[in-house]
Amino acid sequence: MQPEMPAADAEAEVLIVGGGPVGLTARALLERWGVRTLLVEKHRELSPFPRSRLVNVRSMEIFRQLGLAERITAAAFAPEYGRIRFRDTLHAPDFASAAMIGVDGPVPESPVTGVVTSQDRLEPVLLGAAGSPVRFGVELVDLAEADGAVTARLVEHGSGTESRVRARYVLAADGANSTVRERLGIGTEGPGAVGRVTTVVFDADLDHWSARQPAGVYLTTRGSFLPLYPEGGWALFAPTPQDPEAADWPGLVTRSLGADVPVHVRRVQHWVVNAFVAERFRHGRTLLAGDAAHAVPPAGGLGMNVGVADVHNLCWKLAGVLRGWAGPDLPATYEPERMPVARRTLGQAVENSKMMFQVQDVRREQLQADGAQAAQRVEPPWSEQYFAQLGLVLGVAYRSAAVVADGHSPTEPSGTTYVPTAQPGHRMPHLWLTDGRSTLDAFGEWFTLLTAAPVHRDPAWPLRVETLPAEHADLWGLGSRGALLVRPDGHIAARWSDGPPGEAALHDALTAVTAR
C-alpha cells in the first residue's frame, strides 16, 4: 500500500470493490441510507455462471428488508427442490438424501423461506435494487489512506485508462483472491486452496431422471449435477482434469451421466475451492467482506450467505458515521462481531464436506460388497435437521461495544439448533405483530424500540417506537413495561426488563451502541 497518490478524479462516500452478490447487496443497503457509493467490478459484466446456489433464510430476510424477496423467489425453484440427493449416477435411485430445512418449506422461526436459485439469476435483481453508479471492466490496483479518506487507483480494462477515486471508506468485496486484501498486506488463516473444480454448464434432456424426484443438488460418484433454472439448463461440478485445455467436455459430461444422452456444452469455468479467514477484516477506513474476508467451501451453501450478513452488519455503521449520528469508532465493531461468525461458518462447511465424503465412502464399500448390500440405502451421519443449520444462520450473537450487555452472555450458536432469545447481541426473533407484520418488518434504516409503554424519543438518532404485544413481552420475560432496543441490522442492542428506559437511559444506550 503506497503512502501517497495524486489528487482524485472523482469522489464517493463509499467505494465498493467487487460486483458479486455481497458488493451489490452493500450498494443497495447503503443507498437506502442515502450514502453516495461507487461500485467497481473488474469483469466486464455480471457473472454468467451459476456459482452460489442457495439463498438461506437469513439472507432472504435481508432481501425482504430491501423489498426484493418476492422477485428472487419468483425466479427461483419451487420449495421441493430444497433437497440434496445422493446417487450412484444421475439416473440411479437415491441411496441417501437430506432436506434443506428452511428452503424445502417454511419454518416458524422466520417470515420467509430460503430458495434454490443460481447466482446469475440473483445478481441482476440486486443490481436493479439501486441506482448508484457501477463501473464494469474497472479494476482497483492500489489504494492509500490519508487525511480521513482513501484514494484508490483504478484501471479500465481495454483502454488502460487510469483514474483515481477518493472515498471516506472502501468496502472490499473482491473475492477470495482480493487485490485489496493483498495490497493491505492482510494474511489469511486456514487450509487455503483445498481443491480445483470445473463447472460445466450444459443443456440436456434429463427430466425423466429428475422430474419426479426434484433436488437442488444430485451428488454422484462422478460429480455433482445441479438443475440451473426452472425452465431448464444443468451444470456439472467435478474435479478439474489434469489437462483441462485438451478435455472433451461433452464426453466428460456424458461419461459422468453414465448414459448416452445428447449434451450441448455452453460454458466451462475452472475455479479453486478455498478455505480461510483473513487475519483482519479492517485496515483503517478499508473493510473486507464476503470471500475477501473469508472463503468457505461450498458444502452447505454457506459462503455467499455469510457475506450478505457481513454487509448487513457493516452498512448501517458506515451510514451512521457518514450521517453524523455515530462516532468514528463504530466501524471498529465490525471485525469482533463478524470474524467469530466467519470462523464458525468455515468450521461448519469443513464438517459438511467430511460428512458428504463419509456418505460416499460408505456407498463405495457397499458397491464393492455383494448385491444385497449394494441395494441398501446409506444411513446418513446427520439428522433431518442437520442441513437446516438454523443455529448458525439465525442464532448469531454479537459481543462488541455496539451491544449493551445485561449480565447474560450471548449463547453460542450450534449448526443445527436454533433457540430464539431476546437477549442483547442476538437477532430479534420473528414474531407476528398485531397488524400482520413480522417483528423483522419493523426494522430498517433506524433503531427500533419495542415496548408496550410510552417512551421519550431522542431526536439525535433515527429511532422508531413499535408496540410489543403483551404476549410477546411475556414470552421474552419483559413484563408489561419492558423494552428492547433493536439495531438497524435486527440485532438487539439493549434490553430493559423492569420498565421502559427513561430519557437518560435511552440516550446512554444509543450513545454507547453508536460510539458517540
Shape: globular
Mean pLDDT: 90
Please indicate the percent range of residues in DSSP E strands (runs of 2 or more).
25-35%
Oligomer: single chain
Biggest β-sheet strands, sense, barrel: 8 strands, mixed
Unreliable stretches, pLDDT < 50, 5 or more residues?
A: none
Q: How big is the Rg?
A: 24 Å
> Number of helical segments?
13
Distance between the termini: 30 Å
Going by helix content, strand content and strand pairing, the class is alpha/beta
Q: Helix amount, in percent?
A: 25-40%
Total strands: 22
Task: Characterise this structure.
- The chain is an alpha/beta fold and 516 residues long.
- The chain has helices at 21-32, 57-65, 69-74, 119-127, 179-183, 207-210, 249-257, 303-323, 334-368, 371-374, 390-393, 470-475, 503-513, and strands at 10-17, 37-41, 54-55, 83-87, 94-99, 115-116, 134-136, 138-146, 149-156, 162-172, 188-203, 217-220, 223-229, 232-239, 264-278, 282-283, 286-288, 294-295, 447-451, 463-467, 483-486, 492-496.
- The strands form four sheets. Strands 1, 2, 7, 8, 9, 10, 16 and 17 form an eight-stranded mixed sheet that branches. An eight-stranded mixed sheet has the order 5-4-12-13-14-11-15-18, sandwiched between helices. Strands 20-19-21-22 form a four-stranded mixed sheet, with no helix packed on it.
- Strand 8 and strand 9 form a beta hairpin.
- Helix 8 (303-323) runs antiparallel to helix 9 (334-368).
- The model has no long low-confidence stretch (mean pLDDT 90).
